[in-house]
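Q: Joint fold for the lines below.
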Amino acid sequence: MITVLAQDVHKWFGKTHALRGVSLEVRPGEVLALLGPNGAGKTTLVKILATLLTKDSGHVEIMGHDLDVHVGTIRQMFGYVGQDTDRSAYARLTVAENLEFFGALRGLPRAVSRERIEGLARSFDFHENLHKPFMHLSGGQKQTVVAMRALLHDPPLIYLDEPTRGLDPIAAARLRAYLKSFVYEKGKSLLLTSHILSEVEDLATRVALIHQGRTVAAGDPHELKSALGAAGYVEVRKDRLPASVRERILQLDQVTSGVDRDPLWIAFAVDDGLAGSQAILHVLKASGVTAPFRYRDVSLEDVFAHFIPSAV
Amino acid sequence: MKIAYAPQTASPGLAEPVSGARVLAATIRKDLRIARRYLPNLVGRLVELAIRFLFFLLLSDVVAMQGEATVGRRLTGSDLFVFFQGGLLLVIFKDVALWTPLNAIRQDLYNGTLEYLYSNPCSRYAYYLGTVLSEVLIAQVVFLPLYVTFVVYSKASPVSMALVLLVCVAVFFTLSGMGVMIGLLGLMWRQVSSLAGILAIGLEMVAGAYIPVAAFPQAVQYVAYALPFTWAYDLIRYYSFNGEWVTLLPVPVEWGILLSFGAVFTGLSWYLLGLVERYAKRSGLHLL
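A: Joint structure:
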């Protein structure tokens, strides 16, 4: 059974057509990352799936339940982490009291809530903060509490809208590790939005790029990278590279294109990492150019820039 | 790399509906905890009460003169005290019922918890009712001493005293629905909080909290008749003065009006709660 199925979803805010026919699927044991520039419609889509907004047209099913018909059932099936996590719990209650209350809103008996809070605190190494008032926590700790809240009722699906924003690297890694076990060991599903592409590379099994309310590309990260037609990029410092040499490099058979979007480096896409690097190095040597030179694999940033050039 | 997926799992009982009673109890527990940790609110409540008392004192001459029309004699001493005290008792219940849902929404907007509430399957009505009930419990800190003083000073019979309590409960029932509706307006327009506050003071005055309705010009009296708490103030005075108070309409009719308002407001607020949520989710309002 598909966990999330969205087909041709449209959403208008007044005269603004925020979603223009977005379609996506999330399957069990899968992490789908929504990528796109600010204002692309990612958060709107997540809020529609989380029943916080209604769509104007299109079809959405969560674990086989029609969003238009079984909202109550669907609300039991997901956890949701929104963007404003700094103010997302009762300031004067402790973390444990907050989570216990939120558990009750999900129908969890107190004993079950307490057991799960203990378990989550162990997983997130959060025990020493459980009895601190929410208002005394740092931004990253608050973010962790909100993630714990989304996991509290052990839902089969989680929506995370920029989940590691504000987390320190260790806390972010801990959250990612937990989410991986949540998805891969328990066979659950995750839909996340993030601007941290390294995080998406680490977590996502599939990626959907959204731009101006439309899905412009979707697939697993490897497929999307392959679609660029390059094995990697050879980057050369621009200020040391004469225009004539640059043109000669672009004429090489191994070089498929040039990407000039960094103020310091120009990137040459190559269809074979080793052969391409050797060919470019040969041209540089032959021209007497001693420019700094480096090789890197295709990244999701390249995918992003390829499909949504106007956003870069 | 191929990943072997475990079968998709969910918590046992995940598909069961959330019990409204559990939501209610958890909300009350939560609000009482917060109240205990934020005592300045309680101090604020006492200060507000003192201000109202002063207001009553300022108006005592007008009330005393109206005594001729309401109980057939000029009100003095303990009569005036009973008049004001009855008004205060009702004000406490009225304020709790009327403003708590709006305050809860305002607090939830500030705390950012509203989004969580509206993405989970619990009963919103149980949640808002929970916030109102917890406020009722908190308000007892002020209400109980006032009521005891009222019992001591009033010459009313035990039955009348019990009926005073019953009026308070009826007002609470009637105005809770109205409070939820005001809260819903606050959900859509933030400005409602301040506008409603100003309007409430005016309506409280018109309804006879401080001066008997009979003292107002005829046009204002017609406005008063449209307000549910007018009938409650009138009833509470009737029982406080042991039946001597001349009511605007026969007592059973006033009870009927009050309870009818309650039934209409409760039904309407229940319906509007769903309607506003759908509207908010369609329009993408500021909170959702």
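Q: Anything notable?
A: The first strand of chain A starts at residue 4 and ends at 13. Chain A is about 35% helix and 25% strand.
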